Amino acid sequence: VADYAWRPYKWNLAPAPGFGGPPLSAARKKRLGLDPKRFAFRVQYLVTWGPNAARGRNVARAGLRIGDIVTSYAGKSDFTSIDDFHAWVRLECKVGQDVEVAYLRKGEPATLRLKLID
Fold first, then answer.
1. Per-residue model confidence as pLDDT tens digits over 59-78
2. Rg (the chain; Cα; Å)
3. How far is Cα 108 from Cα 118, in angstroms, rounded to an integer?
4. pTM for the full model?
5. CA 25 centroid distance within chain
6. Which ranges in the chain belong to alpha helices (H)?
């Protein structure tokens, strides 16, 4: 089956996470005490530029920072790739929905609540 999650047509769909970054290697997850098979990624950017800048600013106001390690989004932690994560948010979540984001900051677990915007 082809992976259509990366297609650029999804970029303007809402809601969108407003952030992204590279997945962690199995070795890095193990060092952080995470299951090496579990999906996790390091926040490398918040979308604070262009026509969708409000999305990144919304995430920043909720408390997420560059360098945080996202381990779960809206209770889901079995994404197969960062593209799968981005596509899932756009296709399964709704504008106005409150989601919980679980993450690690400096190795310490934390969560935040985020209201998804258009």
1. 999 999 999 999 999 999 99
2. 14
3. 30
4. 0.89
5. 16
6. 26-31, 53-62, 82-92
